[in-house]
Amino acid sequence: MEMIKIENLHKSYAKLEVIKGIDLTIKSGEVVCIIGPSGSGKSTVLRCINRLETPTSGRIIVDGKDIMDPSTDINHVRTEAGMVFQQFNLFPHMTVLDNVILGPLKVRKIARNNAESLGLSLLEKVGLADKAKNYPEQLSGGQKQRVAIARALSLKPKVILFDEPTSALDPELVGEVLEVMKKLAAEGMTMVVVTHEMGFARDVADRVIFIDQGVIQEENSPREFFSSPKNPRLRDFLGKVA
Ligand code: ADP
Ligand code: MG
């Protein structure tokens, strides 16, 4: 079953055309990693999927709903497609637990005690149950990102979009975040992951996509993608990052 279907996506910022015709289908349970140089449009694609940006043209279907259709509830689309950002985006004045349960309280309007037990179970899942009462500033970057993942899970999304989730972390903290992501993948979560972590892409992705100059230049199983890249720009890119 198709979780996300993108057809001929174009996106311009004023006169700058950033996405120049992208087609991409992601099946339920699939993990797709997107790699590519800085400025190539990776974040823009993710942000179009949950309507943080409005596509200039094209079609995006998320879980059967056309997100451009005026009758589609955008807030509902955002609950279906959770997002994890490079910079965590936690609220500094709220405890870890309150950060995690904000969505369930505000969007789902569930009772506080139910939200708290949900939040604690999600914190347990990311290995941070003991930090529930702490504030974000008391956590390491890796812990903050794991809280952000718990928060993304709190609305029970159908897919999670990760935008360079480990790029802001000190190298020794990257592994703990990737471990949590690996666990989610193993549980069958549908994931779209923009990343520079080639090891993660190789081990966890079902498919790897190379975006450059606003188009998909190459798309393959991780094995083929890394062992026999065909596009010269991808070969050049892999040569620089590997
Ligand atoms: P990536 O995530 O691959 O680094 P982005 O999708 O963030 O690339 O950006 C692609 C291009 O679009 C870049 O040239 C960037 O400067 C430009 N861009 C991104 N967001 C905006 C915006 N809100 N307004 C204008 N230009 C933008
Ligand atoms: Mg980006």
From TrEMBL:
| Gene3D superfamilies on file | P-loop containing nucleotide triphosphate hydrolases (3.40.50.300)
Name of the protein in its database record: GlnQ5
Q: Where in the cell is it found?
A: Cell membrane
| Gene source species | Desulforapulum autotrophicum (strain ATCC 43914 / DSM 3382 / VKM B-1955 / HRM2)
Q: Which domain of life is it from?
A: Bacteria
SMART domains in the cross-refs: AAA
Tell me, in one coarse class, where this protein mainly resides. membrane
Q: Show the Pfam families listed in the entry.
A: ABC_tran (PF00005)
- Report keywords, A-Z: Amino-acid transport, ATP-binding, Cell membrane, Membrane, Nucleotide-binding, Transport
